[in-house]
Amino acid sequence: MPRSRLFTILALLLITVCFALLSTHFLQKAQETTLSFFSPLFHSGAFVKKQLGGLGKHLMTLDELEAEYHHLLLENKRLHAENDLLRGLEEENIKLRATLNYRERSAFRLLSATVIARDHSVWWNTMKINRGSKDGVAPDMPVITDRGLVGKTTTVTDHLSVVMLVTDEECKVAVKVEGTREQGIANGLRASTGDLELCFLDKLADLKSGQKVYTAGVSGGIFPSGIEVGTVKSFQVRELDGQAILDPAADINNLEDVFVIVGAK
Predict the structure, then answer these.
(1) How would you classify residue 140: left for phi > 0, otherwise alpha for psi between -120 and 50, otherwise beta?
(2) Per residue in 18-62, pLDDT tens?
(3) What is the pLDDT of residues 160-217, one digit of tens each?
(4) SS3 of 90, please?
(5) Cβ distance 168 to 188 under 8 Å?
(6) More confident position, 42 or 218
(7) Which of 93, 116, 202, 265 is in the most buried spot, having the most CB atoms within 10 Å?
(8) 135: Cβ–Cβ under 8 A, 6 or more apart, which residues?
């Protein structure tokens, strides 16, 4: 037998004897060291497995997702509706506060009224309010809002009154122009455009756009002085006088609540 092979066999026998002679305590220590080294990996794997298992429990099916989506849509619509309602209530509250403040500041005794019907035509322009003689209303009483002149009462019953609007051709109002000595008569246009015309002005008046026009409060007249009637839109010279076109101060087309002037404070 070659010498090299003999040495190899002897070495293998020696190693085998050494492993056999190792104590059980030494082998246990080696195993503990190995387990301690790889312990973090074992824990990480278990944690990931646990999390993935929990995630699977909470995953929703497509039907469940669709149902949740529709639920959220309905909830969103409900919240939008509530916001719109609250916004409307807030605007109404602001409007009511402004109206009450105006009534308190006014030099007149004001009776609040609600518009219950409108009547538009080429020949007349009137509305009906829910106040009548039982509330102290009489014919030829001025009707206003906090923005300006609306018109005057005509026919009055116990609990209802007809109001001729300032935009009616037959509603004549003596007025004066802010910042000038110009006075004239304002009334609605026959074409029922919603504008007013101011006639009997001086040809040299040369009114400017934006000037305010107020009731003149002539002796024996229906309308007291100082109520805003409108704003000058344009001015033209005619053969005998000057004429201005006015934009009404009150929002005639959107009247809901008005005041009837029933006297002075």
Answers:
(1) left
(2) 555 555 555 566 666 665 665 665 556 555 555 555 555 556 677
(3) 999 999 999 999 999 999 999 999 999 998 766 789 999 999 999 989 999 999 999 8
(4) helix
(5) yes
(6) 218
(7) 202
(8) 111, 159
Task: Round to whole Å and give the CA distance between 226 and 220.
Answer: 15
- 3-state secondary structure at position 163: strand
| Cα–Cα distance for residue pair 164/160, rounded to 1 Å | 13
What per-residue string of b and e applies to 155-185 under the rule 16 or more CB within 10 Å gives b?
ebeeebbbbbbbbbbebbbbbbbeeeebbbe
Q: Which of 188, 190, 165, 170 is nearest to 253 (CA)?
A: 165
For the stretch 55-81, what's the b/e string if a residue is b when 16 or more beta carbons lie within 10 angstroms of its beta carbon?
eeeeeeeeeeeeeeeeeeeeeeeeeee
Q: HSE on the CB side for 84, CA within 13 Å?
A: 6
3-state helix, strand, coil in the chain (%, to 5): 40, 30, 30
Do 244 and 94 meet the contact criterion of CB atoms below 8 Å apart? no
Burial of 246 (0-12, 13-18, 19+ CB in 10 A): buried
How far apart CA 126 and CA 117 sit, in angstroms, is: 9
Residue 137 identity: V
CATH number for the domain running over 108-264: 2.40.10.340
What single DSSP character describes residue 244?
Answer: E
In angstroms, the CA 54 to CA 57 distance is: 5
For residue 261, the one-letter residue type is I
